Structures are given as C-alpha cells and as structure tokens.
Amino acid sequence: MIETLQAGDKAPAFSLQNQNGETVNLADFAGSKVLVYFYPKALTPGCITQACSLTDVRPQLDDLGVHVLGISPDPVKKLKSFEEKKELNITLLSDEDHAVADQFGVWGEKKFMGRVFDGIHRISFLVNEEGVVEHVFNKFKTKTHHEVVLDYLNQH
Fold it and tell me: Pick the catalytic residue: 11, 26, 34, 47?
C-alpha cells in the first residue's frame, strides 16, 4: 500500500530536467499554483489522453494561474519525443530514478494483467502558492482528469 502526500502536507522541493534538458525546480513556481501530475509512461494510450487533454485546457489553467508539471520515469529524450509527436504545451519532467515519485508517495507496487511490479501510480497534486499540497486528485479516469481538475479549481 502506498502512502501519498495529503492535503496540508508540504510539497517536497525538487529539481528535475524537462523535455528540453533544462532544470526545473518546484521553487521556481513559488507564489503560483502548480498541478504536479504523475504518469507511468510517455507515449502510452492513457498517458497520451491525459497529456493531450491538459494541453487542450492549458488556456483555462493559465487563466486560473495554474502551471502544469507532468512527471514520469522516462528519460529526457523520450519526453521530447512525446512533446513533439503529440504537440504538447505542458512541462514534462524526467524522474528516472523515481526519487521525486517516492517523495510524493506515488511509487509502489502495481498489478497489471496478472503481473506485479513497481511503478508510478497515476495521482495528481495541486500545490498552492506557499508550496503546500492543497488537493490530491486520485480518483479519475485519464480522459476526464482535466475536467476533474478544472471543476475543483473553479469551485475553490
């Protein structure tokens, strides 16, 4: 059983490389809200759906002052390919050693088609202007993730 961060927890400070090989720090977004979303693997069906949907609603997220950081264990080169092939306009971060996923509590045992393995659980965190987890999104389908996030943001 994984133990994820909860609302009210301080978000771990992290620095990861984005799809362009540039270092991105959570601290770079102090004073803004950040949607930190974890996804298992670039260029797979569910992850494509989720990333493309967030790309589509980027203008609304911008209007609400929310930055999007997608984190997976993929190498930078694969993230660049994902961005280019799917014309994404969101920041993708490489967490190859899953250290950040561990800190957020989203790395752990998974079961898929009878196989048991360790991997990323698809969970998103809304981090507020002070760097504290405001909300955890852990009950959604990839095709409605963006709607769940926008609904929450528009109500709060």
Answer: 47
Distance CA 59, CA 145 (A): 16
* Closest to 33 in 3D by CA, of 53, 55, 60: 60
Buried b / exposed e across 7-29, counting CB within 10 Å, b at 16+?
eeeebbebebbbbeeeebebeeb
Active site residue 47: yes
Contact predicate 125/115, CB 8 Å: no
Work out whether strand 66-72 and strand 133-137 pair parallel, antiparallel, or are unpaired.
unpaired
pLDDT band at 146, cuts 50/70/90? Answer: very high
Decide: 9 and 132 in contact? Cβ < 8 Å. yes
- pLDDT single digits (tens) 15-44: 999 999 999 999 999 999 999 999 999 988
The whole-angstrom separation of Cα 91 and Cα 36 is 10
pTM of the prediction?
0.94
Fold of 15-155: Glutaredoxin (3.40.30)
